[in-house]
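Hi R.,

Here's the input for the L-homoserine complex you asked about:
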Amino acid sequence: MKPIRVALLGCGTVGREVVRLLHEQADELAARAGAPVELAGVAVRRPHKHADLGDLLTSDASGLVTREDVDVVVEVIGGIEPARTLLLEALKAGKSVVTANKALLAEDGPALAEAADASGVDLYFEASVAGAIPLLRPLRESLAGDRITRVAGIVNGTTNFILSAMAASGASYADALEEATRLGYAEADPSADVDGYDAASKAAILASLAFHTRVNSADVHCEGIRAVTAGDIAAAATMGCVIKLLAICERTPADESMPESVSARVYPAMIPATHPLASVDGAFNAVFVEAEAAGQLMFYGQGAGGAPTASAVLGDLVAVARNRVLGGRGPRESAYASLPVRPIGTLRTRYHVSLEVVDRAGVLSTITGEFARHGVSIAAARQTGEGNGNGSARIVVVTHKAPEAALAATVDVLAGLDVVHGVHSVLRVEDLGRKGVAG
Ligand code: HSE
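And here is the predicted structure with L-homoserine in place:
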């Protein structure tokens, strides 16, 4: 059989593992794909660092992706440019693409999909979300006959490591981040992870696939974990909950304000300690999928790292190679539903609000009155204080579900009241379809 020739863009942690697996499993990959899968070239910025790759190396990525002897381009560079230009050039030149680039897919996935369609080639990206976990193929193929209602999960290992460390030891956010950096989980600039952008890109990709609708990173409401304190983790524990950075993609039925719509959001939230996602600790990822006929499904595994991510890349590569051997294509982008994206303010969420207030008669009633004035129903309120009229008291309010905008407006007003010394924390409480969240 004529070999399938692969151009690899980038040779970092994931790229090295792709090269290793292509080499070590050459015979089995050939048997599975129906033709040998060979490296045609590896484009890197600094060739001298990869001398062992010999003649395969080039610093001319643009030349490599359009070379006549290349069938498939595998991109593991990450970031928007030069990846976008290179992949568009490759697709235009009739090469299939396998990419792990979540940021690019979340920002400009439709442009890549359209370029793939125009040339009749494949665009696969299993490695872009949750590393080794087979998740996109189940959403796109296995569940193609079902109606997905929610995809919610932990899709960032760095933040899950930090939150798990805080919960296990009572450590502060800063100390847990330092440990994550020391152990190599967090990067020197941890912003993409701790500010939620990495998870938001993944949420956009998941929502697009699950709901057959184009959702991009700008559509995803995103909050990170920098403001989560040891006190928040302890407060969650008293509610029978843990705090996780969640990516939540939901289909919402039509209501008086909107037709059927979808939403995608990333934020730290309390979830019941009994929920399967609560026991996902350390750098692991897990995603909970709910579909009308299938019910609840959970996908769990390693969401990052060289070998786990390369496993997903190789799976895509074999699929693309098979399609080439058989003369066909895999599934294309499916965005036919084109549902509107619901603004965050209209979503209904529960909140856990913790306030430091003046400790004197009538303050609790002033506080609860503000919730009532904004139409936010309180599920539970707890006050602790000396009651001597001089000091401060702590008030914790847990609400029923209410529109985000009403909850945010309530908190804004509370923060400005004379009797409020400070708003300690505002955290969402997500039961994720489970009954029995405390409060
Ligand atoms: N930095 C990501 C994480 C892995 O911590 O999970 C790549 O998306």
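One thing worth noting: The chain has 14 helices and 17 strands.

Cheers,
M.
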